[in-house]
Amino acid sequence: MKQSDAIIAWTPARWAELRPDTAGQVAVLPLPDTEGAAKRFMMRGGAGSSALQALTGEARIARLFIDFQTLVVRDGLDPQAVHRAFLAIDEYRFRIAPDTEGAEFEDPPEED
């Protein structure tokens, strides 16, 4: 799904007492969240943020990787779990190293 349609929902690992069912977990959900799945988590970002809509294309991509870093470094989520969740976002898959599991080419190279 496109970044502009992806809600990033997570609960910091350190908040296990507040939300034990989702502490240390992340989900990438489509907007609109008709089932209310994002409400299970303490934090939300991505398409749910009006600030994202105001950013330019390059700034949106930067925001995506800043969000990744925030979840991992500040909030203590497992980097591989965050990576697997973020693979649902097209812009993430197209911009990670091409030899990373889950990476894709935006325009696949033509075969000879």
Characterise this structure.
- The longest helix has 18 residues, at 57-74.
- The mean pLDDT is 93.
- Helices cover 33% and strands 12% of the residues.
- The protein has helices at residues 50-54, 57-74, 79-86, 90-95; strands spanning 6-10, 26-30, 43-46.
- It is globular.
- It has 112 residues and is α+β, with helices and mostly antiparallel strands.
- It has a 3-stranded antiparallel sheet, covered by helices on one side.
- The chain has one domain (3-95).
- It contains 4 helices and 3 strands.
Task: Name the helicity range.
Answer: 25-40%
Based on CA inertia axes, which overall geometry fits?
globular
Low-confidence parts? none
Structural class, please? Answer: alpha+beta
For the largest beta-sheet, the strand count, sense and barrel status come to: 3 strands, antiparallel
Q: Estimate nothing, just give the exact number of structural domains.
A: 1
Note the topology.
Blueprint: E1 6-10, E2 26-30, E3 43-46, H1 50-54, H2 57-74, H3 79-86, H4 90-95
Antiparallel strand pairs: 1-2, 1-3
Keywords:
112 residues, alpha+beta, three-stranded antiparallel beta sheet, 12% strand
Summarize the structure.
The chain contains four helices and three strands. With 112 residues, the chain is an alpha+beta fold.
